[in-house]
């Protein structure tokens, strides 16, 4: 994928139509120069055929759950032509979050671990936020993706995939201060570092407005700084092409995908235009 950085270190609202086993795909030949992204909300709807690439949501809407249609959607993405230059046929995205403000009410907040920000001791700080991101990425790979891919008969190597971090206000984030934005950034850094340590390519999915609300400015010292962007928000291919010229989510990256939504037969389908 053009411009996607390989991240190494201590390192997508993206949903449209889904697949039911045995259900024929729709609109043969549609989208040969495009990708489509799919996830859990569309578990009863046929997917488009003839797609250049497919981006599959690993999670079920929040970072701690699995997409119940992951196996079928991986099979669908595997059938992508892969003919769109620099965009692998099978890609994935994962939901992200930082629920640290509710750490007394959840069981997933880390109580220990090592990070570039120091040792995590269970506090709502940068260190534990980073470890939380590491843990979520580990579960995404080893708890969700790999077992499901094996069940589906889809050969998947994490290092061969593009992993998109889906950053949206609909998920749970720390808020209300610059420290909260820094903690959210640390969680994404933990995820990106863990995924990147496998040799995988990592990118960022959001809108500029949501990114600023959740993460804010990313300094050059952050492992997020050079990651490329997949931008949401367009309602047509023409508008998506215009958004390809928008600023990336981080100053060191590039906009490589622009998502637009099309209604077909009363259903919304996310299209992904290479920039």
In total, how many beta strands? 10
Average per-residue pLDDT, rounded, comes to 88
Strands in their spatial order, largest beta sheet: 1-2-3-6-7-8-9-10
Radius of gyration: 18 Å
Instruction: List low-pLDDT spans.
Output: 1-29
Order of helices and strands: EEHEEEHEHEHEHEE
Helix count equals 5
Strand percentage lies at 15-25%
Tell me, briefly, the overall form: globular
Write the layout of secondary structure elements.
Elements: E1 35-38, E2 53-57, H1 70-78, E3 90-95, E4 113-115, E5 118-120, H2 126-152, E6 162-166, H3 178-197, E7 201-206, H4 208-214, E8 228-234, H5 237-243, E9 255-264, E10 267-274
Parallel strand pairs: 1-2, 2-3, 3-6, 6-7, 7-8, 8-9
Antiparallel strand pairs: 1-10, 4-5, 9-10
Question: Which features does this protein show?
Answer:
globular; two-stranded antiparallel ribbon; disordered N terminus; 275 residues; eight-stranded mixed β-barrel; alpha/beta
């Amino acid at each position: 994928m053009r411009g996607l950085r390989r991240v190494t270190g201590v390192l997508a609202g993206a949903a449209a139509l889904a697949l039911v086993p045995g259900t024929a795909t729709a609109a043969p030949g549609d989208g040969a120069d495009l990708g489509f992204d799919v996830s859990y909300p569309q578990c009863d709807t046929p997917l488009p055929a003839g797609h250049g690439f497919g981006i599959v949501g690993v999670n079920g809407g929040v970072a701690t759950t699995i997409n119940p249609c992951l196996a079928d959607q991986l099979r669908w993405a595997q059938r992508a032509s892969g003919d769109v230059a620099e965009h692998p046929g099978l890609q994935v995205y994962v939901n992200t979050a930082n629920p640290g403000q509710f750490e007394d009410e959840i069981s997933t907040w880390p109580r220990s671990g090592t990070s570039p920000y120091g040792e995590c001791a269970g506090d709502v700080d940068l260190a534990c936020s980073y470890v939380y991101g590491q843990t979520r990425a580990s579960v995404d790979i080893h708890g969700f993706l790999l077992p499901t891919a094996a069940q589906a008969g889809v050969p998947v190597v994490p290092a061969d995939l593009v992993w998109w971090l889906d950053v949206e206000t609909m998920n749970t984030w720390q808020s209300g201060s610059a420290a909260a934005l820094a903690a959210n950034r640390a969680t994404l850094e933990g995820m990106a570092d863990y995924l990147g340590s496998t040799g995988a390519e990592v990118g960022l999915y959001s809108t500029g407005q949501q990114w600023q609300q959740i993460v804010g400015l990313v300094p050059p010292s952050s492992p997020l700084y050079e990651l490329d962007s997949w931008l949401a928000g367009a309602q047509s291919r023409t508008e998506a092409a215009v958004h390809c010229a928008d600023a990336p989510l981080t100053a060191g990256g590039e906009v490589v995908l622009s998502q637009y939504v099309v209604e077909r037969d009363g259903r919304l389908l996310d299209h992904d235009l290479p920039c």
